[in-house]
Each structure stands twice: as structure tokens, then as C-alpha cells.
Amino acid sequence: MIDIVIPNNNEEEFITIAGKLGYKELLFLYSFDNYINLKNNPNKKKEIEEKNKKIRIHYGILADPKNIQKINTKLKDKGDFIAIKCSNINREVIEKPKANLVFALEEYGWKDYMHQRASGLNHILCRLANKNKVMIGFSISSLLDYGNQSIILGRMIQNIILCRKFKVKTVIGSFTQNPYQMRSPHDIMSLFAILDMHEKEAKDSLENFLNYKTK
């Protein structure tokens, strides 16, 4: 199983804690500039990966939604993995599509409707995500950092139901800069079982990035 994190010169700490929690692989997300610098510096990658050879390391881009078109234009390798945190241009990102993963939709500052959560997803976005193979990510750091956990939990439940209905692939990850916010795969699956995610859905959500990479 794999976790997705956003390191800030603390890769070694992430690797150590990931091993203790039972992860076999990590996806490090970097800003576009840092990602390109790392890609062009094999010695740096080797240094990171040799900290703990039991953990396999993957690399991806945490893109700014406003600069995503520029990033796509600059990338020569179409195999580069691109993740975007939720913003007010989700439809544009999913419709084109310009990213492989959009996460933390529950965080954005929409106001809930009277009879429905403003969860960042709807049937139109889900159909587009399914068609364009854009994965939807659920962020553990959203639960830990956001002021009102009940709002986030309610929105997650609604988005899980929508993704299931429209067969959208989901991803669960820490998406954190703090290694101590990581949680074990067992704890994550237990949490999402409470949120009405089926066991297979939760397990797949901890592995869907790997399925993407093997296509």
C-alpha cells in the first residue's frame, strides 16, 4: 500500500515513519520547479531512496491550478503524475483533463445547501472524471487541519457515494507536509468504513496510484 505526502526537505522522516506504519511505497509530491530539479538530479533521487531501501519511492507534481496549462505545455514526458488540490476551477481541470488527481474537494469554502452538502463534486463532474480518468482524492490532512471536522466528514460521505455511483476512481492519502499526520493503512480503512466506503473501495483507494503507474 502507498501513501501520498508533500515533503519539505523532510523526506527521510517520511520514509522512516512510513516504514513503521506498514507502508511499502510513498509518492512524494513536489512543486513543478522542485520536481524538474529533482528529475534532473539523479544523485539527489539516489540519496533519498537509499535512506530506506524497504520503501519504494515515486515522484509527482503538486500543480498550481492557475499554472496547470503552462506545466502541461512544458512537460515532455506524458507519464508524469500531476495532482491538484481543490480550487474554484475544478471543472476546467477535470474536463480538459489537465491532471491525474484532484484532491481535498471537501476543504474548499463553499457554503452547504439546505438539503445537500457543497462537497465540491456533483454528477456532472463525476461523469467528466470517469470519462477522462481523473481520480478523486480524499485527504487525511483535511480532517486534521480543517476547523470543523463534522463538515469535512459529511462532505466526504457524499463524495464517496457520488464516486461509487459514477464509477470514479478514488485515492486516499495523507497529503501532508507533516510526517506525524500520517496514519496506518489499517486506521485509514477503519475510518473510511465508518464513512460508508466499502472495504474493497478503501483498499483500492490506497493502491489506485500504483494501478495508474502500471498502465
Can you walk through the features of this model?
This protein is α/β, with parallel strands linked by helices and 215 residues long. The protein contains eleven helices and seven strands. The chain has helices spanning 11-21, 32-39, 42-49, 68-74, 90-95, 123-132, 140-145, 149-165, 185-194, 199-205, 208-213, and strands at residues 2-5, 25-30, 56-63, 82-85, 101-103, 135-139, 170-173. The protein has a seven-stranded parallel beta sheet with strand order 1-2-3-4-5-6-7. The model has no long low-confidence stretch (mean pLDDT 87).
Can you give keywords for this protein?
alpha/beta; 16% strand; 7-stranded parallel sheet; 215 residues; single chain; TIM Barrel
How many domain units?
A: 1
For the terminal residues, how far apart are their CA atoms? Answer: 17 Å
Residues in helices, as a percent range: 40-55%
Number of strands: 7
> CATH homologous superfamily - what is it?
Metal-dependent hydrolases
Helix-strand sequence: EHEHHEHEHEHEHHEHHH
Give a quick precis of the structure.
This protein starts with a strand and ends with a helix. The protein is α/β, with parallel strands linked by helices. It has one domain (2-213): TIM Barrel (Alpha-Beta Barrel).
Topology:
Layout: E1 2-5, H1 11-21, E2 25-30, H2 32-39, H3 42-49, E3 56-63, H4 68-74, E4 82-85, H5 90-95, E5 101-103, H6 123-132, E6 135-139, H7 140-145, H8 149-165, E7 170-173, H9 185-194, H10 199-205, H11 208-213
Parallel strand pairs: 1-2, 2-3, 3-4, 4-5, 5-6, 6-7
